[in-house]
Amino acid sequence: MIRSFGITIHKEGRKILLCLFAILAFLNLLTWVLAGHLAFVVFFSISAVIFLFITNFFRSPKRIISTGPLDIVAPADGKVVVVEKTFESGLLNEERIQVSIFMSVFNVRRQLVSTGRTSDPLQPSDGLTLWPLGCQNQA
User: Fold this and answer.
1) Strands, E, within the chain: which ranges?
2) CA distance 132 to 139
3) Stated pTM of the model
4) What is the mean pLDDT of residues 1-24?
5) What is the pLDDT at residue 134?
6) How far apart are CA 8 and CA 41, in angstroms?
7) Which contacts qualify for 3-6: CB closer than 8 Å, 24 or more apart?
8) How many whole angstroms separate alpha carbon 52 and alpha carbon 24?
9) Terminal alpha carbon distance of the chain
10) Measured between alpha carbons, how far is residue 8 from residues 5, 34, 59, 104, 105 in Å?
């Protein structure tokens, strides 16, 4: 079971949201002064929807994950669309089970790990670190 307690904004999104808020506030003020009340209400409504949509993209909910010994926790929000065997030829050179998860624009884009074990990364490549399944980055 996954329970969500409060929502925070991811740190990379804070600057973007602050700049977006300042730009939209300036444009709304400009609309109020130059175009009048009705145009301001319409533009403000559109601005609010845009701001809330982008804020939704950067949300980072705090979660407590409790699982049983046979439970599987998906690493991301979304809908599991494919579970199939595939041969991984890039790093491991062996057959693996591929789980594909479709994420809509309303799903949280933060990868979760289902266990508390730690391990060294497999091999850094082009600045990316691959962590084995069941392990998490403790940095």
Assistant:
1) 2-9, 59-65, 79-88, 94-102
2) 15
3) 0.61
4) 80
5) 46
6) 29
7) 3/63, 3/64, 3/66, 4/61, 4/62, 4/63, 5/61, 5/62, 5/63, 5/64, 6/61, 6/62
8) 12
9) 26
10) 10, 36, 6, 20, 17
Strand-strand pairing, 94-102 and 59-65: unpaired
Segment among 6-15, 33-42, 121-130 with least mean pLDDT: 121-130
Give the CB-side neighbour count of residue 3, counting CA atoms within 13 A. 4
Query: Does pLDDT of 97 surpass 80?
Result: yes
| Pairing mode, strands 79-88 and 59-65 | unpaired
> For helices 11-35 and 37-57, what crossing angle results, to 10°?
170
* Residue 21 backbone zone (phi > 0: left; psi -120 to 50: alpha; other: beta): alpha
Phi, psi of 14 (to 5 degrees): -65, -45
Instruction: Tell me the C-alpha to C-alpha distance, in Å, between residue 42 and each of 5, 15, 48, 101.
Output: 34, 26, 10, 37
* Cα 3 to Cα 46: distance, rounded to the nearest angstrom: 32
